[in-house]
Amino acid sequence: MERVSFRNRDIEVAATLHVPDSFDETGRHPALVIATPGSSVKEQIGANYAARLAARGFIALTFDPSYQGESSGEPRDLEDPAVRVEDIRCAADFLVTLPFVDEERLGLLGVCAGGGYAIGAALTDHRFKAVGTVVATDIGHAFRTMQPRETLLETLRELGRQRTAEARGATARRDPWIPDSLRAAEDAGIDDGELLEAVAFYRESKYRHPNSSNRLLFRSYAHILAFDAFALVPELLVQPLLAVVGGRRGKTGQYEAGHRLVERSPARDKDVFVIEGAGHYDLYHRAEYVDPAVDRLASFFARHLG
User: Fold this and answer.
1) How far are the Cα atoms of 18, 46, 223, 245 from residue 283, in angstroms, in the given order?
2) What are phi and psi for residue 295, nearest 5 degrees?
3) In terms of DSSP H, where are the helices of 112-219?
4) Mean of the per-residue pLDDT values for the chain?
């Protein structure tokens, strides 16, 4: 691994470059950009996939989103899909400046919300020759449909009130993405199995990381709720596509989203690969599920990137 950085306009994006053990810097190699889930930093899910794909011969770049982790940008904890998509394009800009990267063999992998962002980038950046997703989620669709319409509209009204308050000097509002602990989830009466798995992974496992704040700037909702990752897929997504989904369905909707994405894609080479028994968060870190996902992804990328 090598710590690197690149620019997204005036933001310094902190990244990690993973290279194969047999890496020869005098050669020209295929390279992958890996887009991580919402609230995640490069040392978590991105590192799990980048390390495994580097072991299979690919250069893999994973990074902290703008405004989050070790990357710069104010206000902190902003989740703006347009900026997340531009981060991915800027990651490609960085890779093509490296003499050992073959610019004709760039691939893109997105996990969870990063899957939706990866699709958003691939629509208009055809330097990416193949696109893979793992438990892909269109974050805008998910946030719009996870609550009744009246609750959604009240969120928008509250957003307006909060922005007005902040314009007048109030402290910026930051809400937890998920409960800060399993005890907090229990105290809140949460019994959804997938949400509890998310809390266990991010807040109480070895993958908990100090740079992952678990805070979402409230004004992010204005950007998230207007985002649609898959709308232009039939018109603009030309690349081969592989969507890896978990066979155990849940409220994240990853199984349905992966199938919807592939159905909408006009690509001739497209496929859904179902990991039976795996739930959404199993495909973040459990080797018995991540390894077969990576095997299929490595084969897919090798076929299209060489």
Assistant:
1) 20, 12, 27, 8
2) -55, -45
3) 113-124, 139-145, 149-167, 182-187, 193-204
4) 97
Cα→Cα distances 164→159, 167, 201, Å: 9, 5, 35
* In the chain, % of residues over pLDDT 70: 100
Tens-digit pLDDT profile for residues 276-300 = 999 999 999 999 999 999 999 999 9
Strands, E assignment, 36-135: 59-63, 101-111, 128-134
- Mean pLDDT, range 227-239, rounded to an integer: 98
**pTM exceeding 0.85:** yes
- Please count the other Cβ atoms lying within 10 Å of the Cβ belonging to residue 126: 12
What's the pLDDT at 143?
96
Residue tagged 């760039």 (tokens): 106
Strand bridging mode 101-111 / 128-134: parallel
Residue 279: exposed, middle, or buried by beta-carbon count in 10 A (0-12, 13-18, 19+)?
Answer: buried
Is residue 22 scored above 90 in pLDDT? Answer: no
| 193-226 residue pLDDT tens | 999 999 999 999 999 999 999 999 999 999 999 9
Q: What are phi and psi of 177, to 5 degrees?
A: -65, -45
**Torsion sign (Cα): 249, 284, 7, 106:** negative
- Concatenating the DSSP letter of every residue in 130-152 gives EEEEES---HHHHHHHSS-HHHH
- Please check whether residue 61 is in contact with residue 91, taking contact to mean a CB–CB distance below 8 angstroms: yes
The helix, strand and coil proportions of the chain, stated in percent and rounded to the nearest 5, come to: 40, 20, 40
DSSP 46: I
For the chain, how far is it from start to end, CA to CA, in angstroms? 22
Percent of the chain with pLDDT over 90: 98
CA–CA distance, 252 with 189 (Å, rounded to integer)? 19
Q: Both tokens of residue 164? A: 């007005």
Which residue is it, tokens 């004709």? Answer: 104
